[in-house]
């Protein structure tokens, strides 16, 4: 049975996580509403984080954004987290496919995007490391969910499947059928389920028979020729095999 989280520590992390996906920043009032917490209890935490340079406050707007202290921590992880081999493989995929490649892991019912290599194409997927999206609405999320049992997935979405577009899968039986296919053929896909005019393919990455991350390539629909699809899927399968081989000898801290 999981231990109850330390409330004050959880509140600090809640603040940092909210700000990590709000690049324009949030005011203390915004944070109070989003966290359902009084400003009086948030202010000393936010003030301390600002003093330690983990947050920065704009004097004009009063909005808080992520500070240089967080950048230092992120840089330390990037340097020591063992992701260099995966990043090099992602760069090769982008060079070959000319499309954006992303690496993510499961965070509750969401995908947490932890690395991205952009395509040089003028029209391409726009995303940010640190973003979270409902796993059921993305190919990379379905690849991650394929590592769970059906009962675990039902429990994860006990309140229902989130919807991002009119094409998002929101029926549990449909999602479970798709995940069964991913477990069989090793490839997850989505078409305009998370973003209009965008298709995506993804593969789960396993270490000791457990899915620890997933890799995806996103393609605008107007470039989704059969040849492009075949190239993307081939690149992903080759990358999957190489990363899983490395996972047996390299410590990826994801």
Q: What attributes characterize this protein structure?
A:
single chain, 254 residues, alpha+beta, 6-stranded antiparallel beta sheet, two-stranded antiparallel ribbon, 9 helices, 8 strands
- The count of helical stretches stands at 9
Oligomeric state: single chain
Low confidence ranges:
none
The whole-number mean of residue pLDDT values reads 89
Can you describe what's shown?
With 254 residues, this protein is α+β, with helices and mostly antiparallel strands. 44% of the residues lie in helices and 20% in strands. It has nine helices and eight strands. The protein has helices at residues 7-20, 28-35, 39-51, 68-80, 84-97, 139-145, 150-156, 172-185, 226-247; strands spanning 55-57, 64-66, 100-107, 110-117, 132-134, 188-191, 198-207, 210-220.
Brief sketch in words of this structure:
With 254 residues, the protein is of the alpha+beta class.
Write the layout of secondary structure elements.
Blueprint lengths: L6 H14 L7 H8 L3 H13 L3 E3 L6 E3 L1 H13 L3 H14 L2 E8 L2 E8 L14 E3 L4 H7 L4 H7 L15 H14 L2 E4 L6 E10 L2 E11 L5 H22 L7
Antiparallel strand pairs: 1-2, 3-4, 3-8, 4-5, 6-7, 7-8
